C-alpha cells in the first residue's frame, strides 16, 4: 500500500444473461439481448481495459461472467448470428447516412454508428476470432481483471435451498464452468441476485470459493454485528468471506433519476429509430412479425422530462463524463478520509453493479470507467483500486460473523422471486429437484455410453435452465412475460418427460435402448438446450 493510500475502492461488474438459444428459428427477439450486450457492454468494456493497458495505467476491476453467458459466447451458432447482426446494423447505418442528410447533427451520429458497428465487426472477427472469452481471459491472466464465478444458471439460492443438493449442483456447475474457461484458480463467486443463505456456505467452500458479494443489510444485520459495517469484509463460521455493497457510491452510479446515468447530456435509451423511422423503411431491420423494436441507433439525448428530446451531442456527453468521474473521485476521497483510522484494516468501499448498466443502459458508462481509472492513477489520491481477492491477501485478519439472509432485490429479500405472479413455479422446481436426486440415486454411475446417462444428463440441463432466476424476475416486472413462462413450462415439461422414461420405460431400464421417436426427441432438445456439454447428473447423488 502506498504511504498516501488510506483505503480502497473495488468495482465489481456482474455480467449475466439467461441462456437463449434457438437453432430452430431466427425469429426470437430474445436472442438480441446477447447481441445488444456484446456491442454495447462487453466489447466496450474490453476496449476500455485494452486502452488502459496500452497507456500503462494501473487499474483493477472485478467481473463475474456467468455460466449461461459464457456458454452463449462460446456457441458457434450465436457467434455466426452476431456477425449477421453486425452486418445488418452496418447496412442500416449506411442507409441512415443517406436518410439523415437533412440535419448535420443527426448525420454526424449516423456516421458515428456506421463507424462503431464496423469497428465492432473488425474487433470481433479479427482480434477475438469471434469469441470474446479469450479477451477476458487475457486481462484476467494479466491481473488487471479479477474474474469470478456464479451459480450455474443464476438459480436463486434462498428458495432453492429447500433441497440443498440443487444448490450444491448450481455451485459445482458454476465453478466447473469457470475452470473450463479460465486459468487462474477461482477466488470469488457472485451469488445470483446477491441471494445469501448460510446453508450455501459449505458448498461454496467445498468448491474452492473464498469470497462472495452480499447486499448492504446482509452485512449490517450479520450476527454478531460487524464492527466496521460494510467497510470491511466478514468471514462466516464455515470460512466464507463476504463483502457488502456500499450504499453511497451505488446510488451515485446506479440511480437513473438521481445518479449519473440520468444526466440530460447522456444518450436517451428509449428513443430509437426502430420506433421513429418510417415503417416501410425500417421494416427489414425490426421483428420478423413486423413489430417495432430497438435497433441500437439512437439520436437523442435525455434532455429532460416532459419536453422535446434534443439531439445527442458526443462532445457534451464526454464533457459530462469528465465532470462526473471527477465528482465520484472527490466523493470517494472524502469518504475514505472520514473512514480512515476507524477500521482495523484500511477500509474498502465495494461498488457492485450489473455490467450491462455500463454501455447498454448507461451508454457512456464504459468511458466513465476509463476516465475514472485514469484519474485514480494520475491524480493525487488517498485510495487505490483493488479486487476483493487482493484485499483478502493483504489483510487476512477478518471478523467472524454470519451474514444475514438477504438479496439485492426490491425490499432486500425474496419478494421479487416469490410473489403471487410467479409463486406457482416454485413447487414445480422443488418437485423436479427432488426427482433429479431420485434418478441419480436409482442409477448411480451409469456407463459413459449409456442411454440412461444421456437422458439423465439432459434432464439435469432442463432442471437448471428452469431454475434460472431470470424467468421469475421477468414475470414480476411484466416484461416479455409470455417468453419467460414459455421457457419454464418447456424446461419442466421436457424434464418430466425424461423422468418418466427413466421410471416407466421397461426397454430403457432393462436393455438401455429407446424407440426412434424418443431418440429423435432427445436429440432435438440436446441441440436446443445445449448448455453445459460436460454435465454429469451425479452432481445430484
Explain what the structure shows.
The chain has helices at 32-54, 67-73, 76-99, 104-127, 133-142, 157-160, 164-181, 201-206, 216-220, 247-254, 273-276, 279-282, 314-339, 365-378, 388-394, 424-442, 451-466, 469-477, 481-504, 506-511, 516-528; strands at 7-15, 61-65, 145-150, 188-190, 211-214, 234-235, 241-244, 348-354, 383-385, 399-400. By secondary structure, the protein is of the alpha/beta class. It has 2 domains: 7-74 and 131-267 and 315-410, Glycoside hydrolase 38, N terminal domain (7-stranded beta/alpha barrel, Alpha-Beta Barrel); 418-540, immunoglobulin/albumin-binding domain-like (Up-down Bundle), CATH 1.20.1430. Strands 1, 2, 3, 4, 5, 6, 7, 8, 9 and 10 form a 10-stranded mixed sheet that branches. α1 (32-54) links the parallel β1 (7-15) and β2 (61-65). The longest helix is centred in the middle third of the chain and has 26 residues, at 314-339. The model has no long low-confidence stretch (mean pLDDT 95).
